[in-house]
Design a protein that fits this description.
Blueprint: H1 11-24, H2 38-51, H3 55-65, H4 73-76, H5 79-82, H6 105-108, H7 115-127, H8 133-151, E1 168-171, E2 174-177, H9 178-190, H10 194-201, H11 215-226, H12 240-268
Helix pairs in contact: 1-7, 1-8, 2-8, 2-9, 2-10, 2-12, 3-12, 7-8, 8-12, 9-12
């Protein structure tokens, strides 16, 4: 899929209401919940993207992020979690029924309120010539985060176990759950320093096939991973063999998220 073919299924529906709702997130308080990849994972994704921006895209990103406490893609990568509320929470994930990865918008993403819709709404705002700099700032921060979210397999997992949140287990001698294990446990067990993790993944970037820049396709990939044999540990104390089995998938999803995000931003900000 050419990087210029940015999906726009929601552009004709976005209007000022959706843009305004995105801005309103800024004033809302944080609600509890599980966050995809954890801060380190999101920083890894965002830094990979930053490392692959064109000069034109990098200039546009820098302009939009000027004034942020940490004005980099990595620095804003967890912003959407920091302002996450009960209302905005559904934009971070999509649930599928057991036994299927077939996407039914009315069932899985009503009114665009899922991570697929969140990505499309963010893209549409960034493409909308009438959006203000503040609106585009919010859309960029959301896109950076949601692109990471959708590549964490359990953010396109089963609704019945809340994306693995109710699957209790022990990891590294401490109580955890399957969602948290994929958020941060597997990353930390591989390389606890996010900057070194980025360097570790860099040699693999040249061999990554982006395949698609459609958020729906990304979600379906994640759903398929969750449905794979062995994804759910056989017992509540998965050992090193679980990390050995799934660590390459973690690497692939982090790299894909970052490189796909870069391709989207390069297409959105051609100069």
């Amino acid at each position: 899929m050419p990087v210029s073919a940015v999906p726009n299924r929601l552009e004709h529906r976005i209007g000022r209401r959706i843009i305004g709702a995105a801005l309103a997130v800024c004033s809302l308080i944080v609600s509890p919940g599980s966050f995809a990849w954890g801060k380190d994972g999101h920083r890894i994704v965002a830094q990979i993207a930053a490392d692959h921006l064109t000069p034109a895209a990098a200039s546009s990103v820098n302009l939009l992020l000027a004034g942020e406490p940490e004005p980099t893609l990595a620095g804003v990568s967890s912003w959407a979690d920091e302002v996450r509320t009960k209302e905005t929470g559904p934009l971070h994930y999509v649930n599928f029924p057991r036994g299927t990865c077939q996407f039914t918008p009315k069932r899985d993403c009503p009114d665009g309120r899922c991570v697929i819709g969140g990505i499309e709404q963010s893209i549409a705002t960034l493409r909308y010539s009438g959006a203000t700099p503040a609106e585009r700032n919010v859309a960029l921060k959301n896109l950076v985060h949601f692109a990471g979210d959708v590549h964490q397999p359990l953010h396109a997992g089963l609704g019945e176990d809340r994306g693995g949140n109710t699957v209790q287990l022990q990891w590294a001698g401490a109580g955890s759950n399957l969602h948290a294990l994929w958020d941060s446990g597997l990353i930390a067990s591989t390389e606890p320093d996010w900057r070194r993790y980025v360097l570790r993944l860099a040699p693999k970037a040249a061999y990554v096939d982006l395949k698609t820049l459609d958020g729906l396709d990304w979600a379906l990939e994640s759903c398929a991973i969750v449905a794979s044999d062995g994804f759910y540990p056989a017992n509540a104390k998965p050992g090193p063999e679980y990390l050995t089995r799934w660590q390459p998938t973690v690497d692939e999803r982090l790299n894909l998220a970052g490189l796909r995000l870069a391709a989207l931003l390069n297409a959105l900000f051609p100069g």
